[in-house]
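Reopening this one. Same input as before:
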Amino acid sequence: MADPDNGYSQLTRGAPLAVILAAVLYILYQLLPVLELIAIAALIALVLRTMLRFLKKLVKSQDAAVVLLIGLILGFGLLLATVVIPNATSEVQNLLITLPTYLNTLTVDVEKLRQKFTFIPNISLSLIQLRNFINQLLGGVPVFLGQAFNFTLELVATVILALYMAYDPESLVNGILKLIPRRHHQRSIRVLKACQARLRGWIFGTGIAMIFLGAGAALGLWILGIPSAFAFGIIAGIFEIIPYFGSIVGTFLPALVALSISPIKLVFVLILFLVLNQIDAHIVQPLVMGQQVNIHPVMVIVTFLVMGKLFGLIGVLLAVPAAAVIVTLIDEFTRKEPQPELPPAGE
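Same output, byte for byte:
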C-alpha cells in the first residue's frame, strides 16, 4: 500500500535545497556591485596581459615591457586628467552660456525668414523644445562631474585589483579549478582558453576601432575648426567601447559645440561622424571584430539590451565580453565529442 505521506515527504525533501539556493541568490544579489567590479577588474587584467604580450614582442624583454606598460597607463591617466577632462568641462561651461542665447537668436532669424518666405516651415516651437532639452542635459553635467570623484575611487581600486590579477593569473585559474570536479577539468580548461581567445580578439578589435574613430574624429574636427578637437576625439574613441551606441554618444558634445558656432558646422560634424561610423561598421568591424571574435551582431545587441537593463552602465560595458563568453559556452556544450572508431566486422 502506498504511503499517503510519500508525496509530501518528497516535496519537503527538496525544501532545504531550495532554501539554500534562495539564500545563495540573495547573497549574490547583495554582492552584485562587488561582483561587477571584479568582472571589470578581470577584463582589465586580460587587457593588460594582452598589451604586455604585444609590448614584449616589440621590445624583446619582459622587464622593459612591464615598465613601458606602466608608463603608458600613467601617461593616459595624466592625459585624461590634464587635457581631456578640463577641455570637456570648459566646453560644457561655454555651452551653458552661449548655446541658449544662440538658439534664441536662431529662433528670431527663422521667424523673420518665415515672414519673407511663407513656404519655410515654422520650427520656432521645435527650437524652443530643443533649447529646453539641451539646457536640461547640460544642467546635469555638473552633477555628473560631482559624482565622478566616487567613480574615480572605485576605478582606482578596480585597476589595482586588475594589476594583481594580471600579475599572477595562473593562481586564479588553479583556484577556479579547485571548485570544479576533477572529471570536468579538461573541459573547463578548454572553455577558459576559448573564452580567453575570443576576449583577446575583442580587445584587439576594439582597440583598432577606438584608435581609428578617435584619430579620425580629432583630425576631422580640427579641420572643421571645432574647439577642443583633440579632447573630443579621445572621448569619441573611448565611447567606441560601447557597441553600436557609443558612437552616437561620442557625437553629442562636439555636435552641440558645432551648433553653438553655426548650423553649417553642425551639418559638417554630423557628416564627419556619419562617414567615420560607416567606415567603422562596414570595414573595421567586419575585418577585425568579425574574424577575431566571430559573434553575430544580433547576439551582441540582445546581450547589450539585457545587460544594460539588468546592470546599467556596467552591464553595457560588459555586454560584448558577456556575449563572447555565452557563445563560447554554447559552442562547447553543443559540440559533438569524437566517437571512437569501431573495428571492422569479423575482427
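So the earlier flakiness isn't reproducible anymore. For the record, DSSP finds 13 helices and no strands in the chain.
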